[in-house]
Every structure is written in C-alpha cells, then in structure tokens.
Amino acid sequence: MTLQAAIQQNSYPMPYPKDKDMETARNLMVDDQLRPSEITNLSLLSVMRELPRECCVMPDQQSVAYADMTLSLGQGRVLPQPLLTARLVQAVMPVEKARVLVVGAATGYTAALFAALGADVTALESNTQLAEQGQHFCQQESLNVSWVIAPLSEGITGNAPYDVIYFDGAILRFPAFCAAQLATSGIMAGVMATPNRLAEAFTARREPESASSFIVTNLFETQLPLLPDLAAPVTFEF
Questions:
Q1: Disulfide engineering: 188 pairs with which of 85, 198, 204, 212, CB 3.0-4.6 Å?
Q2: Pure H helices in 9-71
Q3: Strand 145-149 and strand 120-125: pairing?
C-alpha cells in the first residue's frame, strides 16, 4: 500500500498498541547504533527507546524502520537514518520550553523527538500528505506540536524567534528567513550540501553584532537529499 492510499483509507502505517518486536528493535537501535557512536544524552536515548519510528515510514518499510539507513518517503523525501538524527539533535539539545522550528518536518519523527524532550515545537512541511501523517503521529503520541503546511523557504513568523531552527534535510545555504526568525542566542542545525563534495552536518550560531551572518561548525560528512523549496540558492534581501 502506498502512503497516499493509506491516507485515503484513513489507515496510517501506525500500529497501536505498539508491537513487542518493534520495542526490541528500538532498544537494539539505541544500544547497537547510538550509544557506541557517542550519543550520550540520557534524555535523548530514553525518548528514542520509546518513540515509534515505524509509524513514520512507508507501510512496506516498517520492518527496517530501525536499521542504520535513510528511508525513502517518496517524492524525493526521506526519513534520515537514526544516528544522523540523534547526532544533530544532541548537538542542539534544547532546554525545557525552548522554541524549535523543524523545517521539512515530513512525517514528524524529529519534531516528535524535540517535543518529547520538552521543547515547544513548530513543524513546517510543504507536502500535505506527509504533514497529515506527521500530525496524526504526533496526536497519537500525545505530543504538542504545531503543524503548518506552507512553503519551506519562508519559515514561520508567528512563533518566532526560535531558539533552534532544525533543517530535517539538506540545504545549499541558509534561507533568508533565518536572519529574522533565529533568536539572538539561538542555534541552527542540519546538513549543508556543497557541489562536488560530500555534504556536511552542521550547527550554526549568529556572528556577534551581525543580523545575517552565521558562524558554522561542521560536524561530520554525510548525505541527504535537498529539501524542496530550498534546493535553489537563496540570497538575502535588504
């Protein structure tokens, strides 16, 4: 069954109550993939042991939802591999009630992670079908995430400024909205794609006394598809 068919039949790929085999798979993901790779934050590890990642993939991929791999969601979108998500979330671990904007929230896994960690999350998604699945997922998990279906290139002004802007996919450069919507002491994270080179996972903070320049810290090389609306270079306008 395709994702579209599942939505039309109101039968999302979300097995409730949670399957015992999936619980085992979640624990193996944490113990075999995350902990040996320096994911040390206990709150993050605890949430990733509980959050049903299998509910955020295509129906025929649930059996590999916890594998060390990136999974296709169709239309060029993906659910990043668990370790990539864990490393980036750990790098920007929000304090309680921090405002987090997840750009390209897709089926909601990363937005749900932040919410379960106590953040005030806004999930921005341009694909209606993915957003509907993400909304359903967060509702089933009783997680308070505000969903907005709109182009990714503009961000969301209503809940800004954000303590964390998280790109759940690759970008070519920072969209213009970051200058206005990132809090003064805020942090961004995601994957920056560069022509003819491997992409780099990054964090970024404002350059002191600058409204639109950021100090970027490259974390590790990786691969991830570009987010829609952010595939073309974007320049700041003044």
A1: 204
A2: 20-28, 42-50
A3: parallel
